[in-house]
Structure formats: C-alpha cells, structure tokens
Amino acid sequence: MYIHQVAAYLPDQVITNEHFTNLNGLAADWIIERTGIRERRKASPGENTNTMAIEATRRVLAQATAFPADEVDLIVGATYTPHDTIYTLAHAVQRDLGINDIPVVSISSACSSLLNAIEIVEGYFALGKARRAVVVVSEHNTAYNNEHDTVAGHLWGDGASALLLSKDRLAPADLLVKEVLTGGAAVAGKADEAVTLKPVERGIVMPHGRDVFTYACQYMARVTRQLLERQHLTLDSLTYLIPHQANLRITKNVLQQLGLPPERAVSNIERLGNTGCAGAAIGLGDTWPLLQPGNRVIITVFGGGYSYGAMLLER
C-alpha cells in the first residue's frame, strides 16, 4: 500500500496567544512555555468540518500525478468534531467528487484516528474491495471549544488534510506503508474522563491534563520502539518522527525517551495548535518535499479515550 500524495487545508484566520491574554488573562509567554503554541487557525463562520475536508481533498487530487478523481473507489473520513453525525465528512467528500456507489466510512478514535482510517483502507485493499482510496482527516475544534476555559481553551486549532492511497506504486515519490500498528488503551489511567467532548454539555474539556501527558508520552514512545523492532530497524535508520501535534513538551519527552535529536522531529504545533487527528497528516505534507529515496518516517499518535498507534513509511 502506498501514499501517493498528501495535502492540507488551513483556515485563513489566525488566533494568537494575545487573544487569550485579553480574553481570560493567560499570559502569551506562559502558553508558549506550557504548550509550545504561539498561534492557531480558526474556521470562518461559513466553514466547518465538511467544507474543510472537501477543500483538502480537492487540493490533494489537484496535486496528484497519476490518480484521477474518477478512480477513487473508497473514502474514509476521520474526526471527533463532526459538523453532522449523519451526513459525515466522508459523505460530503463523496458528494463533492460526484462518485456514487463506492464505500464511504467515517470513524472517530480521537486524535489517533488518522492511523485507524489508514488501517481501514489496508483492510479494503487486502480484501480486494478497493484500489484507490482517499483518507481525509478534519477537525473543527473551535466549534466545540470554550475559549474561556483556562485549562484547555487555548490549545485547539482547526484544519484538515487529505491523503491518496493506492494498492500499487503510481509514482517514484510514493511512500510505501510498511506497517501500521494501533491499539486502544481505555483501561489506562483516567482514560474515561481525561478528555471529553459532550456536545450537549460543555464541549471539549481536559480536566486531567497530567494524565493525558503521562500516557501520551509513554504510549507514543513505546509503540514507536515496537514498530521499529517488528521491522528489525534501529532508531538511527529513522529519518523523521512525526508525533501527534498536541503539546511541544510531549514531543520533547518522546524524543528524549527514544534518544532522538530534535531535528528529527516534525512539529507544526507552534503555528497551528492542536489540530486533532489532522495534525500529523499536515506534518507529513510539510515534510513530503524533504523526503529522499531511502528515507524512513514514523508517524506516532495518541488520542483521548485512550488510543494510540504508529505507522512506518519508506520512500
């Protein structure tokens, strides 16, 4: 299975830390120190999870060299911030593409959903039910976020990314998906209450941030090691690590556990905030032009609930 291309859509509106200083008194430097975030994007009143997913998909297909839109035979969407729980982002993308009678699937496993979506594609490909897939991850965090919440209200940003996957290599620059490894960790710590989003109540809340931090660091480092061991590879063979973009301190902790230098890590949290399951995919798109033949990339993720995973890519 190969990733043929990846593209992102980010809303135009930029929300700086000073916005939260004026709103609830949080110092801009304090936010940077605690999270690494300097600014984030916010969808406009006319945008939502579905519209951002559509735009990301249009962009990735426009970039594709050997992947006509009419050859798409599977769409998998992922989000925990849906615009509509029935007419999902996957359906919206299908309607925009005008391709009927193909499978469309939408999933949510919080911020780790990207890799679960890719696993679904893996299954369809293995069963011979599809050969050309779109995976689209989109988060409209600001639709659910409470900006007055001084614990987590400043963390979230909006954005989307779309990936084209094929069963066969279509171009020399395609990335081979060597292995995807995921798992649920709902029995760990305060997984049932550490991060929640109950739309009829208060939206996104994170009452147990320390618990999230602890298990995110633990699981992302552990699953990265497991994946390398399963592939009989060393850390030295890894060109880039793309962690879930939740908190810069988490990224630094994972790097320290693994013994990787900072320049090996891809980070966009400083300018985008936590864009949920879209963050790592956006990071892959940022890294794409830098990749050379023989390079290896691991995407490692952790989501509230809890869930985790890692994916090894090779050019």
Automatic annotation (TrEMBL):
Record carries keyword Transferase: yes
GO biological process entries: fatty acid biosynthetic process; secondary metabolite biosynthetic process
GO molecular function, one term: 3-oxoacyl-[acyl-carrier-protein] synthase activity
Domain Beta-ketoacyl-[acyl-carrier-protein] synthase III N-terminal, residue spans: 107-168
Domain of life: Bacteria
InterPro entries in the cross-refs: ACP_syn_III_C, ACP_syn_III_N, Thiolase-like
Keyword terms: Acyltransferase, Transferase
Stretches assigned to the Beta-ketoacyl-[acyl-carrier-protein] synthase III C-terminal domain: 228-314
Key word Transferase present: yes
Protein name: 3-oxoacyl-[acyl-carrier-protein] synthase-3
Native species: Hymenobacter psychrotolerans DSM 18569
